[in-house]
Amino acid sequence: MHPLSIDKLSYWEKKTYFSITDFIVIGAGIVGYSTALYLRERHPDASILILERGYLPSGASSKNAGFACFGSPTELYDDLQHIPENQVWDTLEMRWNGLQRLFSIIPKEKFDFQQNGSWDLIHSNTSQNELLKDDFIAYLNDNAEKITGAKNIYSEDKNVSNTFGFNHISTSYFNRLEGQIDTSQLNKAFYQKTIAQNINCLFGVNVNHFQEDSNNILLDTNIGEIKGAHLFICTNGLASEFFPEKVKPARAQVLITEPIPNLALKGTFHYQKGYYYFRNIDNRILLGGGRNLDFNGETTTEFGLTEHIQASLEELLYNTITPSYKPKIEHRWSGIMGVGDEKKPIIEKISNRIAIGVRMGGMGVAIGSQVGKQLSELF
Ligand SMILES: Cc1cc2nc3c(=O)[nH]c(=O)nc-3n(C[C@H](O)[C@H](O)[C@H](O)COP(=O)(O)OP(=O)(O)OC[C@H]3O[C@@H](n4cnc5c(N)ncnc54)[C@H](O)[C@@H]3O)c2cc1C
Fold it and tell me: What separation in Å is there between the alpha carbon of 163 and the centre of ligand 1?
């Protein structure tokens, strides 16, 4: 039991934080914060409590690569091969609208949103018939315009290697509307807004399990039992601990270089259908991916790094991204995503008092706040 378990708290503390709460949200990620903020809009006088297991959020929202992306050409092409066409465009629409919603909750300047565009990089040994055709790019532009209202979002950029000094890259597909953010500033801004909206937020509280009686939800936590009238589970990949059949954890590994003098790289870059991704940040390169090298091993809720995947990131960095300069790797980390059979989130009531919003895949920056809104409307 925790040294400061609930039964040892003062009367005041118990009254402020642990009277039976109207709405409890588990998880202080983009989805949990958004859910709590939209609950506040719908229920101005309700008591709302967010419980987070880490001293900082400890899933994906403050560990990700900070791509504000809604659909790159090779990803769309790939999806169209095995997902019905209307669903592919529904997903793009959800991501686009989700980003606009995010900007409406937290002003872009607060998390350094920069719209530098994104490039889908194509390896020089890709055969001619695997390249995307002009009429496919035109098809993407027509459909994306119907959703975004913006013309000619996509184009081919054959000059990308000259611009950024890459090796082994013959061409690229450019998305002029994608951007990049400061992931940690976004989380901090969410936290600040949550507190300003009179939502209690407790860190270091792990929910072990929960049960429902006729009037309440009872949460068994590391600090004791907590009661609430309604529960929202926003724990994404970690929700696999509660619902292994609905969502699987997917670890993603990342590295960041030391500052690089005169770094030309500016923007976000996808490679090998998005299995690798990199961007500039503070004159450094942040690079992640390689999960496809070991899907089984990376199906885990444990933070950690593996030699094999880190070596593949270094190989890509030194041979392709910065072939003329060998920056030192300054730091490496991992985060845990939530994935499943389908490329869409689960937003559903599982009882009259409990709802879940999980399985954001690699799209949570874009869709997380929209998921939070829909989730908050379930009660
Ligand atoms: C390395 C990496 C790179 C990524 N890059 C991008 C990107 O560039 N663009 C993009 O759109 N998406 C990206 N993603 C995915 C994106 O970060 C996630 O989809 C999104 O952050 C999920 O948000 P969430 O709120 O659903 O979950 P999370 O941010 O994981 O939040 C869930 C929270 O619940 C807490 N929690 C879990 N279990 C419990 C419990 N039992 N009790 C209490 N608290 C609990 C966790 O500690 C965690 O803080 C990336 C992910 C990773 C890991």
Answer: 33
Give the amino acid at 21. T
How close is the Cα of 73 to the center of ligand 1, in Å? 25
Q: Is 65 in the pocket of ligand 1 (CB under 6 A)?
A: yes
Helix (H, G, I), strand (E, B) or coil at 369: helix
Residue 31 beta carbon below 6 angstroms from any ligand 1 atom: yes
Distance CA 332, CA 317 (A): 14
The 10 Å Cβ neighbour count of residue 263 is: 18
Q: State the pTM of this model.
A: 0.97
Is the pLDDT at 197 greater than 90? The verdict is yes
Confidence of residue 1 (pLDDT cuts 50, 70, 90): low
238 CB near ligand 1 (under 6 Å) = yes
Query: Does 356 score more than 90 pLDDT?
Result: yes
C-alpha torsion angle, residues 251, 60, 98, 177 (rounded to 10):
-80
| Ligand 1 atom at minimal distance to the Cα of residue 366 | 11
Domains and CATH numbers, the chain: 6-63+184-246+342-376 (3.50.50.60), 115-179+248-339 (3.30.9.10)
Q: Is the CB of 57 under 6 A from ligand 1?
A: yes
State the Cα–Cα distance between residues 217 and 346, nearest whole angstrom: 21
Q: Tell the residue nearest (CA) to atom 16 of ligand 1.
A: 364
Query: Nearest residue CA, atom 51 of ligand 1?
Result: 64
Task: State whether the beta carbon of 372 lies less than 6 angstroms from ligand 1.
Answer: no
Sequence-ordered list of residues with C-beta below 8 angstroms from that of 219, at least 6 positions apart, any chain: 24, 26, 51, 207, 209, 210, 225, 226, 227, 228, 231
pLDDT of residue 336: 97
